[in-house]
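Lab meeting tomorrow. Please check the following:
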Amino acid sequence: MNAGIDAHVHLWDRAVDPQDWIDAETMAPIARDFGPRDLSGMLASTGLGGAVVVQSSNSLDESIRLAGLESSAIAGLVAWVDLAAEVGPQLDKIRENAAVPVVGVRHLAHIDPDPEWMTREEISAGLAELERQGLCFDLVVREWQLPQATRLAARHGGLRFVLDHLGGPPGPGQDRSTWTSHLRELARRPNVVAKVSGLTSGLAPGSWRAADLAAPVATALESFGPERLLYGSDWPLAELGGGAAPWKSALEALLDGLSAAERARVFGGNAAGVYSLF
């Protein structure tokens, strides 16, 4: 795909895959279903050709349904499987009637009842299976979990890890020193890349400018370099912060100092390589 790739979007049909985390009052812009047609419209607004759909709940059934969506806008799926169980048969179920290639796996570690989920020995075999199959593992973590993610990446040096949302940096005006040190440590692992995504999803529309996000983006660029950063809209959650197009425009402005080739990597080339979207 040569028109650019959004490395992080979600789709959901709440009738079959309830999204209990969506509060209809405080999250009104996303308190509805989002399907492939909506995705195509969003991509048109940002000038990109395709997107990686990422699971929204720790549900095998959801992943099976997402894999079955037929749309030229969907380049790949980051699915969910129970890493403490046999991973191969679960992936086989997802792929059985799939129209979308499975390119990675994610677990919502940031809300898992076990705050030490990433340290569990029983997930090691599952992660090893992902490595054998050439899949990535997406890390969705809070700031305080970044050291766990670093240790996990060190234990599985042959597996590609993708950090979602830069690990949740504190918002504008907040102290980012702990996050900065943790992110830099994680970035020292050569098998880790990071999505510049989700930075506006927790901000009110119209309350932020590109300059408000300059510090975390600069830290990410310094830590990972343009060769290990992937643009992601975090749409539809981006609607909570004013939309995907304003976020993409802001990031383009913040990365203006990069060469055209480096920007092309961030806005699609790296995603294509990391997730094998060929």
User: Anything to note?
Assistant: The two ends are 7 Å apart (CA to CA). The longest helix spans residues 260-274. The chain has a mean pLDDT of 96. The first strand starts at residue 5 and ends at 9.
